[in-house]
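Need a sequence for this fold. Nothing fancy.
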């Protein structure tokens, strides 16, 4: 019996800022973003959107197909939690109409936790093959204005159904892990934006890739040449290319620059126009690979490197299932992206600076999102969500 990803769907906001606009305001060449970091646009959450509404929107197509009764567990991965105690997934549980005997838990470890959720979900399904586990990763990447991280902002959510005998990707049991206590990126409870040491974080990312790969190689019979494609955590698209060159060099693969790029290029299409989505980014990269692959991926091995600052990293592998293309949501994803509204720089600032009420008074949120679910109000320190 195999276990893995049976279905996958993602969601992002209907607003975006073109990085050419940001470059113009900053009086720099737009190629610094378009080519330098490989980013073209960044999604901006609407005032009535948060990780809960995005998660529910991402999961909705999956629930519409399998129904609410079949989900035994909902695992919610995020580093943009809305409460220090209550799991954001509990709100999603209600919005999706899941049953009362469905367990819900929130996981956090920077951008890595969706991978932890998938591994836990696979273990649950392996124990009870008739069960289905819904894994949702949802985040809003925010940095201070006029910092190096500003152009890498974004938002998005991805929902994955983990089942026995999956229709998309079979996940292998062997994994390679690496953990180290470092301060390359973090966000204290009293801050709404992250603190990042960019150069140091890149250094730790690459070190973690080396260590996780070495750990993986000790337990798996797979070699570098057994993989046709690689999905990396995507704080920005150019990072995947840098990481893959690093891994190729470690394995003395002797690949040309074109071959190296071909193994990651198809994973980057959506991230370039969405921006960083933290826990969701690598898995939106997987959607991009499956929906934009230049060849039939059936039977191909895919390598996954998941990285969460601070840091925890994991390398694991999966096999694309024949017939996978029949189970994708390609058209709806492309329609969603094409329907987004570009904002001016002033409109971007208004979205960025939209009030985050903390006084306990009643605050209605302006209706802005085009999604099915929205944050209608915050009142008495309680978040009120509605279905549109």
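Here you go.
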């Amino acid at each position: 019996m195999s276990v893995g990803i049976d279905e996958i769907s993602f969601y992002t906001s209907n607003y975006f800022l073109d990085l050419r606009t940001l470059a113009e305001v900053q009086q720099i060449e737009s190629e610094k973003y378009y080519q330098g970091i490989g980013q073209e646009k960044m999604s901006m959450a609407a005032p009535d959107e948060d990780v809960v509404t995005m998660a529910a929107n991402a999961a909705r197509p999956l629930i519409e197909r399998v129904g609410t009764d079949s989900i035994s567990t909902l695992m919610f991965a995020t580093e943009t939690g809305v409460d220090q105690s209550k799991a954001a997934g509990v709100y999603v549980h209600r919005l999706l109409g899941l049953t009362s005997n469905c367990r819900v838990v929130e996981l956090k470890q920077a951008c890595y936790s969706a991978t932890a959720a998938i591994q836990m979900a696979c273990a649950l399904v392996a124990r009870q093959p008739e069960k289905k586990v819904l894994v949702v990763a949802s985040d809003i990447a925010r940095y201070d204005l006029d910092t190096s991280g500003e152009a890498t902002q974004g938002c998005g959510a991805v929902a994955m159904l983990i089942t026995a005998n999956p229709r998309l990707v079979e996940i292998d049991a062997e994994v390679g892990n690496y953990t180290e206590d470092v301060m390359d990126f973090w966000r204290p409870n009293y801050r709404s934006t992250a603190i990042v040491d960019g150069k140091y974080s890149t250094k730790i990312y690459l070190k973690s890739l080396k260590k996780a790969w070495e750990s993986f190689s000790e337990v798996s019979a797979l070699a570098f040449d057994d993989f046709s494609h690689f999905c990396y955590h995507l704080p920005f698209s150019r990072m995947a290319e840098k990481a893959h060159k690093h891994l190729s060099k470690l394995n003395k693969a002797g690949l040309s620059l074109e071959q190296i790029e071909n193994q990651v290029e198809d994973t980057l299409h959506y991230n370039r126009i969405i921006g960083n989505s933290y826990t969701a980014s690598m898995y939106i990269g997987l959607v991009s690979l499956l929906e934009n692959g230049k060849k039939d991926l059936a039977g191909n091995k895919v390598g996954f490197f998941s990285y969460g600052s601070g840091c925890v990293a994991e390398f694991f592998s999966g096999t694309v299932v024949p017939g996978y293309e029949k189970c994708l949501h390609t058209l709806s994803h492309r329609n969603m992206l094409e329907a987004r509204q570009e904002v001016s720089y002033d409109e971007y600032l208004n979205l960025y600076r939209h009030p985050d009420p903390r006084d306990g008074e009643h605050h209605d949120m302006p209706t802005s999102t085009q999604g099915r679910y929205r944050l209608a109000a915050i009142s008495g320190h309680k978040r009120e969500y509605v279905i549109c």
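For context: The chain is about 35% helix and 25% strand.
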